[in-house]
Every structure is written in C-alpha cells, then in structure tokens.
Amino acid sequence: MPGRAYWMASTCHGCPARCGVLVKCRDGRPIRIEGNPEHPLSRGGLCAVGQASVLELYDTLRLDGPMLRGAKSDWASVDAFVREQLAGAQRVRVLSTTLASPTSKRVIDEFLARFPDGKHVVYDVPSASAIREAHGGVLPHYRFDNADVIVSLDADFLGTWISPVEFTKQWSSRRAWHAQFEARLSLTGSKADQRVRLHPRETTAVLAYLAGATNEPPLKPVVLERIRKRLEEARGRSLVVCGSKRVEDQLLVKRINERNYGTTLDLAAPSYQREGNDHELAQLFAEPVDALFVVDANPVYDLPEFAVDHVPLVVTFPSHIDETSKRAHAVCPSPHFLESWNDSEPVAGVYAVTQPAIAPLRNTREVIESLAAWSGKPARAYDMIRATGKTAEWDKTLHDGFAVWSAATPVAALYAAAEPRRAAALPPPLKAATGVAALHTFTPVLYASIAMRDGRHAHNAWLHELPDPITKVTWDNYASLSPKAAEKLNVKDGDVVNVQGVELPAFVQPGQHDGVVAIAIGYGRLGTDRFAKVGPKWLLRRTHLTGGDTVGRRAIQLAKYDTVTITKTGKRHELATTQLYNRVDEHRPEPFAPVPSPRERGEGQGEGSSLWPAKAKGAHQWAMAIDLAKCTGCSACVIGCQSENNVPVVGKDEVLREREMHWIRIDRYFKGEGDELQVVHQPMMCAHCGNAPCETVCPVLATVHSSDGLNQQVYNRCVGTRYCANNCPYKVRRFNWFDYPHDDVFANLTLNPDVAVRSRGVMEKCSMCVQRIEEARIVAKQQGLPIADGAIRTACEQSCPADAIRFGDANDPKSRIAALRKDERYFVVLEELNVKPAVGYLTV
Q1: I need a surface site. Which of 90, 270, 308, 529 has the fewest CB within 10 A?
Q2: Across residues 618-633, what is the average pLDDT?
Q3: Sign of torsion, CA 444 447 453 459?
Q4: Region 360-388 average pLDDT
Q5: Phi-psi category of 104—alpha, beta or left, where left has phi over 0 and alpha has psi -120 to 50?
Q6: HSE of 291, CA atoms in CB hemisphere, 13 A
Q7: Percentages helix, strand, coil for the chain, rounded to the nearest 5?
C-alpha cells in the first residue's frame, strides 16, 4: 500500500555471523534494517554495522556492470573470456572469507570438481583457525547464557569476536561473573568484573596455570588463584574463550573447558561462522595456480604477503574497485544482500534465507550464478537456494527468514577428533612480559574495530563517523599507547609516530598494557579518498584528505612482526573525538558533565519546590529507562537512531569543531588506573524533562511540552537562537550550522519519509521516535484497543543487542517502564536540578 511500510525477513551479510534481520520497506525501497526478534541466534539484536548496511545499498560508487582487464564490458564477453581462460586449466582455486552459505559452498564445490586440482581455500581476518584445529576442524558454538563464570583471554566477544550480537544477547540475559585478560582495553574488557592487563606473550603461561599444568602463577597470584578457584567451583557451568592464534593455547583452553562441553560449548551443532584454515592459506601462498577466483574477500589488502600478479587468471566479485580487483583480469560485481537471493547456516541446524527487498539497482550478478554459468549449468540463484531449503516449508522459511533443522553430529565423535593433540597441550610457559621492554620497542596488537571490522565497510560514511566506543575517536585509526608508554616516548594525542614504517597519530589509552601498541585494522582502504568532500562547503572548511589519500592507514602488515619500533616524526594529525571529559574520579572544569550519580537506595525522586507551573498530563506519559549494567557501549543504538531519524554525516572537520549531529551520544567514563581501571558507558539523549529548561528560554516556542510527556521540537518555528542548547544541562541538543549536503539523489533513498530533513539554522534532538508513537496510536485507534505495552519500540531500543533500553508508558502501572522506575537501582542524572527527566538509568 503506498505510504505504508512493510517488512521482509532476511539475513544480514555485514559479517559472517549472519544475524536475522527485518528489512523495512516504503514504496518499494528498503529504508531501514532491524533485528529479527524471532531469530534463534541474534534474537532481535543487530550491531551498528548491520544497521548501517542499508547505506551501502544506495552507494553511487558501487560497480555497475562487469569489467575486463580494467575496461567496462558485458556479461557475455566476460563469460566467454573466463571459459576460454579455463580451458585446459589444472590448478584452480576459489579464495574466500567465511561464506556460511550451504548453497554457495555446494556450487563452488561443483565448479571446482571440473578441474584435476580444484580447491576452496577459506581465510578470516582475524582468524579463528587455531580454535577449529584444536577441535578437530570444527568451531564450537559458544553458549554464554549457560555459564556461571566466564574467563576471556583476548576475545572481544561483546565487540567483534565471531558472533558478537548473539553473544551479547546471551551475556546480558544472565550476567555471569566475568574475568577478562587483554593487552588493550576492549569493549568486553570494559564490562568485566575482573580485568587484568595481559601481554600477548603471557597468554600461554596464564592458560597453563588455569589448566592446572603448573601451580606457579605467572602474574598477580591472588587474582589468578581466585579465578582458578571460581572455574573449579563452576565446573560444567563455566566458559573459557581465547582469541590466541596459537593451537597450543587453544588446546589448553580445551583442557580447561573439558567438563563444559554440552553446556557452554556445543559441538553437536557447531558454528560455521568462522571457517578459515591458516594451513591451507599458507599452502596457497607457496603453490602456483592457473586460476584464482576471489569471493567476498580482498586478499591483496588483507594478506600482506599475498600476490596475484603472477596468476594467469584472476576473477573477483566485489562491490567496489578494491586492492585485489584492481589487479584482476575479470571483475564481476555481485549485488548487495538487500537485492539478492542467498542463504546461510551460521550454526548447524539453523538455516536462514536472504531475499531481495528491491530489484537490483546495478548491473550485477550473483556469484553462484556466475560459477554455474562457467560450469556449463546456468541456473537462477533463487532456484539454487530453494533446492537447498526444504521445499515443503519454503513459504514459512521465507516468511520467518529462517528454519531450524536437527543437527545429529555426536559430541563425543567431534571431541575425540582432537584427542591425539592433547599431549601437546602443555608447552613450556613463556617468560612473562611486564612493562615496556625497551624505550621504543613494543608488541603490536592488531584488532578489528566496531565500525570497520576487516575493512569491507570502508565506503560507509555512517560507520566512519561513529565514535569508537572506547576512544570516542571518529574518521581515523591510530596507535594506542598506555599513559606510561606515551610518557616515556614523550608523545600525546595526535602526535604522529612511525610504527615500523607505518605513520599513525598516537592516542593515549588508559587501561592498556605498557608493552604493546594497539592499532585497528580495516583502515587505509583504496577509494576512501572519496570522503575528502564530506561535510558542508564553507569558507573556513578544512580538508583532511587529499587526492589518492585514505581514511586512516593500512596496518595489517605489522602482524608479521613480534615487536615493532616506535619513533616520533615531529608531525601532528588531529584526532576528531566526541568526548573531552573522561573521568569520574577527578575534577573536570566542564560544569555540566553528566556524571552517573545514583540516588541512595530506596530514596524516591523528590518533588521539591519548583518555579515551574504544574503541567496538564494526558493519558500517556512516555518514558525510558537504560540499564547501565547491561549497556556495553556497542553503539548499535547510535546508528539505529541515525538511520531512523535522517541524522546527517558532517565530516571530520565538523566533528573537530564539536558539531557532530548524532541524537544519541554514549558517554564513556574511566575510574582508577591500570588493572583497577573501571569503565561505565552511559547513553545520553534528550531527557524529555518535565520541567524542561529549554522550553522556558525559547523566544518563539519552538520547543514545547506535549501532554504525553514529550519535549517537542517544532522545526518550522525555530530561528536558531540556540538558547535552548545553552540552557540544557545534559548538552544533548544539536544545531544545524549548515544545510548538510543531500545532493546525491541515489543516496537520498535511505531517508525515512516519516521524519523531516532539517535545514540550516534549526535545532534538533531526540524525539523518542514520535513517528513510531503516532503510528501505534493510529493503529490502536483503528482497532479500538488501547496501546499495548511494548507495541512501541524506539529505534535505539529495537535493535539493542544487550536489551539495555526500555521505552513505555509510565502511566501504565503494569508496564515494564513503570516497574523499572520503581527499581532500587533507578536514578536520574542531575536530579538535584529538579528538571524531572523522563529518561532514567539503572545503576551498574
């Protein structure tokens, strides 16, 4: 129906985790992606990358049609060329990242079967190959919701490790006691009950102690003894996970988890979310091949030692020209997942379908259709996908987006497959590494960031402008150093340092090990100079990218070094951060820094005396509560709000001027130092104050209070005095300094027609997704029923992986929000001001 939204169930392809999604469409075009609450793994959650993927569908720089030897071509010519080149080929390889698609794997195998030596090689960045090798070639399906005790060693399972949305859902539903060992401060480490800074060289020794292979704790004896005791007391209900790439370390982890298989680790229905094999990848480097087909991967960027120039035939299937396709003979662009047919089986027994929500916007072709055509058996992707699914339940599978099958692999058989390696599980412990080994020598720790992951989303402006949850930096990667290391090197934030040939700005990060330098991968991608023009065009505009430059720097090549040298260059590179206050345990000059301040247990929100007159209240009083114990700071809510409410991208220069436009910011506070560092994440949006200070100072009544408790912003009244922003104690109002560019008609298809696009000189802020409230009100009126509790879910609440946000009617005594406001942990920020915010929090 024109003007009415409809939803289609599908599967996210932002990473190999393959979360279930619902795609919101208006008038034939997808405008928003949300989590599918019925999906058995992600259960309604969706990360920032998944929600931002809709922007990539409408990217004007996506490839439009195939290319041959760097020139535009057509599919018939490409097909003829590939068939000709494959005639007589012996060694043919398909190189991909984890596909998690049973149909894609079947078609690839059928394609390779035509050649005497055909092989499918899979790699991942970062790799989980060591975990699979320790378990006989399979990856366990982790169940954090069954654990009473969780110990993680360099596994950021709430951030980017394997299946973070699924793991966050499990973690938040139970909140087991959690210890984190890590060299850098990760999102997972920020939520740990016990956090220990751990140098990568100390990992094996700590695992050997926890496994009982030695009784000599390599560091912090009291802490390690307490953790080992907790693991022993929770045998069968504990879980140890490790991000190490050493098989010996993973065998020790397996030994510690020995009694947990079947409860917190599932081998009967293993995970297929990481299928990379480092041994097969190394073999590919060493052998000559006749043809290489690169699927959903960019090995020239990902693998520094990988070269394709000597291969007679290289075929790629990218969305943009990247480092690998630039060297390919044939480039066969594949469609965005929102316009394609595909399937996935992220965990054995969970089959999910990807279905198109729009007709293809570019001249692209599915990878499996190309391979089928070159095999001499052309077929449609839809037919191949349907042949994999259960035909009798196909309509239901399409409607739900998934189907649950039975997995019959016996646990004992899979566990026993790795038994012969247990004898090798006790390597000699490595010497502990403490402090800074030398003045300029550090161990590199490379990690996938929340936004960029392995770099496949480097053309997404929403993700570049998303503040990192820990550092709050946008539009850059950087060399993170501990305060002690930075002091020894005499560097501060923004000083450019040379890290073994890679120049990066330094960033001083509390909670990091003194002996490491942490750098995010995924930056420095070809083509990101496109963002040199992002932001408003005005007289004092500064350009931070020049022609051929990139957003950030490629750092994956540092993985080959055990240690790197760091030297100052004397240059400066300003880092655009969205938070200038960081600590809650020292004085800061900012007068209104919203520091978490819970009221005394059992104390109610006092009325007090007030200069504000009493307001008439309607049938509803909309309110929100955010559980800080659950909030991980993952920033999925930030992108969800941006997608729903047409929040513009302003560019690095405007962020440097403190003019970011996000309606939600997630404040991150530090307390303590070193291993005692504590971190709190606090989402802040318009508090919709009952006694709103902004309303009393607006000279044109552009901000007014509604009878149902909302602080409303009337855009066509606003004249831009900014009095309201000055008077807001929470600093959550955003001012449009410019008409931010909307001249890309194609990209404008992402805009939500239910929300106005604001113009220059207008103040804006969180509206509690009033468009969703009004839609629910209309539906309830048509049905003659009251608005049910939970019928309205704001964009930030809907896809929160941790279920930390709750919205509802405070006037309904049976509502979830009414119960939370009576919880002894409930508090409001700056309660002493008596502004009576409708947004409150539950203490950590």
Answers
A1: 90
A2: 94
A3: negative
A4: 95
A5: alpha
A6: 24
A7: 25, 20, 50
Mean pLDDT of 351-358: 96
Q: Which two tokens stand for residue 347?
A: 């965990």
CA 455 vs CA 302, 374, 498: distances in Å: 9, 29, 22
* CA distances, 806 to each of 43, 775, 820 (Å): 16, 19, 9
Amino acid identity at 80: A
d(C-alpha 487, C-alpha 764), whole Å: 41
- CA-nearest of 409, 453, 447 to 139 is 409
- CA nearest 803: which of 664, 625, 665, 684? 625
* The token pair that represents 620 in the structure block: 């509803």
Q: How far apart are CA 50 and CA 57, in angstroms?
A: 12
Spatial separation of the C-alpha atoms in residues 32 and 645, rounded to whole Å: 10
Look at residue 258 and give its three-state secondary structure.
helix
Q: How far apart are alpha carbons 329 and 212 in whole angstroms?
A: 54
The residue with tokens 């009337």 is 714
What is the token pair recorded at 658?
């403190």
Give the model confidence (pLDDT) of 475-490 as tens digits.
999 999 999 999 999 9
Q: Which residues contact 781 (CB under 8 A, 6 or more apart)?
A: none
The DSSP code sequence of 761-797 is: T-EE----SHHHHHHHHHHHHHHT-PPPTTS---HHH
pLDDT in tens, 387-409: 988 766 899 999 999 999 875 44
pLDDT for the residue numbered 607: 55
Predicted pLDDT of residue 426: 45
Residues 6 or more apart whose Cβ sits within 8 Å of residue 423:
none
Measured distance CA(663)–CA(699) in Å, rounded: 23
Tokens of 522: 């995924």
pLDDT digits (tens, 9 = 90+) for 759-804: 999 999 999 999 999 999 999 999 999 999 999 999 999 989 999 9
Specify the 3-state DSSP secondary structure of 395: helix
Contact between 209 and 217 under an 8 Å Cβ cutoff? The reply is yes
Alpha-carbon distance of 162 to 172, in angstroms, equals: 17
**β-strand partners of 479:** 506
* Mean pLDDT score of the chain: 91
Task: Estimate to the nearest angstrom the gap between the alpha carbon of 774 and the chain centroid.
Answer: 30
150 SS3 class? strand
Total residues belonging to the chain: 844
- Contacts of residue 679, defined as CB under 8 A and 6 or more positions apart, other chains included, come to 185, 189, 190, 191, 470, 511, 668, 669, 670, 671
List CB contacts of 188: < 8 A, sequence separation 6 or more. Answer: 152, 155, 156, 157, 158, 159, 161, 180, 182, 632
| pLDDT tens digit sequence for 163-198 | 999 999 999 998 899 999 999 999 999 999 999 999
Q: How far apart are CA 36 and CA 50, in angstroms?
A: 12
CA separation for the pair 681, 58 (Å, rounded): 32
The pairing of strands 564-572 and 441-448 is antiparallel
Q: Exposure of 420 by Cβ count < 10 A (0-12 exposed, 13-18 middle, 19+ buried)? A: exposed
Closest CA to 168 of 43, 351, 346: 43
Alpha-carbon distances, residue 794 vs 246, 362, 641, 800 (angstroms): 43, 33, 8, 10
CB atoms within 10 A of CB 348: 20
Q: pLDDT above 70 covers what percent of the chain?
A: 93
Q: Maximum Cα–Cα distance for the chain, whole Å?
A: 89
pTM equals 0.93
Q: Which two tokens stand for residue 615?
A: 């307001």
User: b or e along 194-220 (b: 16 or more beta carbons within 10 Å of the residue's beta carbon)?
Assistant: bbbbbbbbbbbbbbbbbbebeeebbbb
